[in-house]
Every structure is written in structure tokens, then in C-alpha cells.
């Protein structure tokens, strides 16, 4: 996953309409912190940089390098688990 | 007696297994359907299933598993899928692929199908067809590139047993070529027909031990491409599995005629009666029916299980297995090393001489 990758949810994975849960084949992933918000931003057009930009806009004063690293870590983990694609 | 641990209270079920029909083009040697199957005339109507899916969603169920039999045998399948999605459920379908066409699949995906599971009986056509009791292997292989054109999650399920476990590496390679999103390696479970064929199907201890590093290596190798899940066969373990996540804790199964069961096999246990979704709503069945209460919690457990801290994890193991192997559904699951019947399984695990045909003299 790079800053210019465009991640999106894998087929058969979708956010629960109200709860912080990702519905996946044969199970669920509980989403903590801002994970749900981040996954909502994966609309198939935004790249990772754009997602980071949106988050920085929302969480004023957050450290850009740190947010970038956290978002990439999270997306890489979810990609390894097969629930997002880039 | 004071108990060493407590089992957490039951919430709402997470999955609903809808056996929409028992009709099936396959006749697998290890079929998990009951020996006595429900007939087509007794199947629930479209409206019955729609009501059940809405009730399930209302009580907090997340996943709907449409299975059978072969769900494609129901002409109202697209309507059932749409009803599940409209109710808010995640819709999965387990199919043999027999009877599937590109047009039909397009209708199912359009109706809201999110995940499709296709199982393979073996890696070679002749032997796969032999195990499935019909010529399905080539149909399954031909279906995969069609599936890949649609936006849905695709799981391949490799069913493993004595006849194919020695070729697990090649079997995984076949699946890998087909590029599913998920790969499940599932050992045959010895209930129903599989129990009748246990001596033919049950692998030896050596086979199982040899398979373990192969599975681990494949998991590593496929990471990020194919999510691999493999369940260790509990016949070869020292502690039982938390069967269906615990009796009446996570899963509800509705059979084609509307009976609500805690698991596929529960009807084999003597004295069970099952309430029907034609007469009761799902919430009542979950909370109050005798079938779901019977092995919930720990009141039924033997003193050994009652005092054991593992009961929080395995909820006392599998009741059907306890009954099938010991004749007593309340017995300690014989998979457990604390069971006085544990030696039964040890005896089954040793290599037997090959089964040879006996010729007339």
C-alpha cells in the first residue's frame, strides 16, 4: 500500500449500516477508533493521501506523519486479512 | 457444588443457516444432511422464509447462510436473497454449482448475493465424482471463471479425508489456480452419512500430522491474496471443539420444513423436539424452545465438565458426537482427554490396513 494507492473494500465486505462492524464472509471484524470512518472514505476514487488529508482536516492539530503512518498500517493489515484491495 | 467458572449469558444469535431445500444433485459420501430428509412438498413457502429473515434481522442476526441441499433447486432463490438483503442480513450461499448459469448468477448477484461458497470433493475428476456420487467436478471447474466476473466474495472449500489428504499440496495448488478470495480446508465431520462411511473417510493420525505443516506453509504463502482457514479435526485433539459456538449461543438452523435446530445434526439426539417457524417466531424459539434450552449453560454437564475452566471456551463440546460415540448425549465429549471414553477415539486414529474387497471363494 502506497500513498497513491486507491484502496477499496474487497467484494463481499461491507460496513454494518449502524454499528462499528465490518461484515465479511463468514464473520465480522469489530472496528475500533476511527477505523469505521476511514473505511467509509474508501469510495474507489480517493487515494491514501486524500484519506489522510480528510482526516487531518477533521482532527485539527493531528500530526501529519503520524496519521499517515497509522492509516497505512491499518490499511496494510486489512489488506493482509483480505478485506480491502488496492 | 461450586463451579470453577461461569458461562457467560446467551445473547442473540449471529447466524441463521437456512436449509431452503434438501433436494440436491450431489450424493456425497459425507453429506451432512440428516439421514431422513425433508421432502419437497413440506418445504417452507417464499413468504415463510421472508418472515423468518425479517425476524432474524430484528433479533440481531448478521449473517444468512442459504444452503441445502442445493439452493438452486428453489426457483424463488432470487426472491429469498433479496428478502435477506432487504432485512439487512449479509447473504451467503453454499452451492454445488450444478444448475448455475451466467444469467442465473447475474440475477442472484443483482438480488443481493454477497458471498458464494463452492466445495471441491477431490483434485481429480474421477475420484471427485466418485465421492460426490455424480459428475459435478467439471461443472464446478467451468463455473469458476464465470464467478470471477461478478462482484461477490468467492470461497473454495476443500473437503479432506483419508482418500485425498495425502495429496493436500496438489489440492491447495488446484484451488490457488482458481483464485478464490478465501480457501477453507475442512475435514469431514462424522455425522449422518459421513459416520456410515467413517472407516473409508477418516484419515490416519500420520496423515493428519503430515498435513499440518502443509496448511501452515500455504497460509503464509497465500497471505494477502487468499485468506486460508483450516479447522483441525477434533477427533485428533485432546480437547473438544466449541461446536457451533456453543449449543444455542450463536447459531440457528432452519430446516426445509421450518423446524428450528441448534445444529445440523441435533435431531439424532433422542427426546429432542423442534419448534417450527410456521407456529412460532424466531425470538420465542431462541429464548424459550426446549431444543435451544437443552444444552445451554452448564446445568446438564457432568461434574467433570462443571468444574472445568475450559467450559467457558468449549461449552462442553459436541453433544451429537457425545451421543454417537457413547450413547449418552450428556456424556463428556469423548474428544476430551478427561472423558472415560477417550480411548474410543485413540482406537479410531490408528492406521488400519487398507480396506480390501472380499472375494467369494
Provide an overview of this structure:
The complex is a heterodimer of chains A (86) and B (361). Chain A is α+β, with helices and mostly antiparallel strands and 86 residues long. In chain A, 40% of the residues lie in helices and 16% in strands. Chain A contains 3 helices and 5 strands. A 3-stranded antiparallel beta sheet of chain A has the order 2-3-4. A two-stranded antiparallel ribbon of chain A has the order 1-5. In chain A, strand 3 (21-24) and strand 4 (27-30) form a beta hairpin. Chain A is globular. The mean pLDDT of chain A is 94. In chain B, strand 1, helix 1 (46-58) and strand 2 (63-67) form a beta-alpha-beta unit. In chain B, helix 1 (46-58) packs parallel to helix 2, helix 2 packs parallel to helix 3 and helix 6 (168-177) packs parallel to helix 9. Classes of the chains: A alpha+beta (86), B alpha/beta (361). At the A-B interface, strand 3 of A face strand 5 of B.
Which key terms come to mind for this protein?
heterodimer, A: 86 residues, alpha+beta, 3-stranded antiparallel β-sheet, two-stranded antiparallel sheet, 3 helices, 40% helix, B: 361 residues, alpha/beta, 9-stranded mixed β-sheet, 15 helices, 35% helix, 13% strand
Largest chain-chain contact?
Answer: A-B, 18 and 21 residues
Q: Report the strand count of chain B.
A: 9
Outline the low-pLDDT stretches of chain B: 356-361
Helix content of chain A: 25-40%
Spatial shape of chain B: globular
Mean pLDDT of chain A: 94
Distance between the termini of chain A: 7 Å
Oligomer: heterodimer
Distance between the termini of chain B: 62 Å
Quick one: overall form of chain A? globular
Structural classification of chain B? alpha/beta
Strand line-up of the largest beta sheet of chain A:
2-3-4
Please state roughly what percent of the residues of chain B sit in beta strands, choosing from under 5%, 5-15%, 15-25%, 25-35%, 35-45% or over 45%.
5-15%
Strand order of the largest sheet of chain B: 7-6-5-4-3-2-1-8-9
Helix percent band of chain B: 25-40%
Tally of alpha and pi helices of chain B: 15
What structural class should be given to the helix and strand makeup of chain A?
alpha+beta
Low-confidence parts of chain A: none
Amino acid at each position: 500500500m502506497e500513498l497513491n494507492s486507491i484502496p477499496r473494500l474487497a467484494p463481499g465486505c461491507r460496513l454494518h449500516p449502524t454499528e462499528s462492524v465490518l461484515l465479511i464472509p463468514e464473520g465480522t471484524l469489530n472496528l475500533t477508533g476511527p477505523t469505521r470512518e476511514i473505511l467509509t472514505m474508501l469510495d474507489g476514487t480517493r487515494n491514501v493521501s486524500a484519506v489522510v488529508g480528510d482526516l487531518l482536516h477533521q482532527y485539527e492539530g493531528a500530526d501529519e506523519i503520524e496519521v499517515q503512518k497509522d492509516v497505512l498500517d491499518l490499511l496494510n493489515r486489512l489488506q493482509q486479512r483480505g478485506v480491502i484491495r488496492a | 457444588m461450586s463451579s470453577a467458572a461461569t458461562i457467560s449469558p446467551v445473547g442473540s444469535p449471529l447466524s441463521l443457516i437456512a436449509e431452503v431445500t434438501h433436494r440436491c444433485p450431489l450424493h456425497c459420501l459425507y453429506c451432512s444432511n440428516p439421514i431422513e430428509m425433508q421432502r419437497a412438498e413440506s418445504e417452507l413457502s417464499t413468504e415463510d422464509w421472508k418472515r423468518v429473515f425479517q425476524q432474524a434481522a430484528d433479533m440481531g442476526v448478521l449473517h444468512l447462510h442459504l444452503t441445502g441441499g442445493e439452493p438452486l433447486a428453489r426457483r424463488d432463490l432470487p426472491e429469498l436473497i433479496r428478502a435477506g438483503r432487504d432485512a439487512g442480513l449479509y447473504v451467503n450461499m453454499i452451492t454445488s454449482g450444478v444448475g448455475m448459469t451466467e444469467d442465473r448468477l447475474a440475477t442472484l448477484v443483482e438480488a443481493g448475493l454477497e458471498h458464494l461458497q463452492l466445495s471441491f470433493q477431490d483434485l481429480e475428476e474421477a475420484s471427485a465424482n466418485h465421492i460426490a456420487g455424480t459428475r459435478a467436478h467439471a461443472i464446478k471447474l467451468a463455473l469458476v471463471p464465470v464467478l470471477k466476473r461478478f462482484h461477490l466474495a468467492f470461497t473454495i472449500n476443500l473437503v479432506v479425508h483419508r482418500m485425498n489428504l495425502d495429496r493436500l499440496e496438489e489440492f491447495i495448488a488446484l484451488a490457488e489456480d482458481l483464485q478464490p478470495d478465501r480457501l477453507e480446508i475442512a475435514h469431514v465431520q462424522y455425522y449422518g452419512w459421513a459416520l456410515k462411511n467413517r472407516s473409508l473417510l477418516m484419515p490416519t493420525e500420520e496423515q493428519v500430522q503430515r498435513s499440518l505443516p502443509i496448511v501452515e506453509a500455504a497460509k503464509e504463502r497465500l497471505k494477502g491474496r487468499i485468506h486460508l482457514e483450516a479447522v483441525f479435526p477434533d477427533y485428533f485433539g485432546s480437547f473438544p471443539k466449541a461446536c457451533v459456538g456453543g449449543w444455542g449461543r450463536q447459531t440457528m438452523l432452519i430446516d426445509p420444513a421450518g423446524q428450528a435446530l441448534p445444529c445440523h445434526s441435533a435431531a439424532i439426539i433422542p427426546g429432542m423436539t423442534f419448534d417450527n417457524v410456521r407456529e412460532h417466531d424466531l425470538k420465542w424459539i431462541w429464548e424459550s424452545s426446549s431444543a435451544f434450552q437443552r444444552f445451554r449453560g452448564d446445568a446438564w454437564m457432568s461434574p467433570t465438565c462443571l468444574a472445568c475452566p475450559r467450559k467457558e471456551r468449549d461449552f462442553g463440546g459436541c453433544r451429537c458426537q457425545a451421543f454417537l460415540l457413547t450413547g449418552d448425549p450428556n456424556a463428556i465429549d469423548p474428544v476430551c482427554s478427561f472423558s472415560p471414553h477417550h480411548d474410543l477415539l485413540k482406537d479410531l486414529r490408528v492406521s488400519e490396513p487398507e480396506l480390501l474387497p472380499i472375494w467369494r471363494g
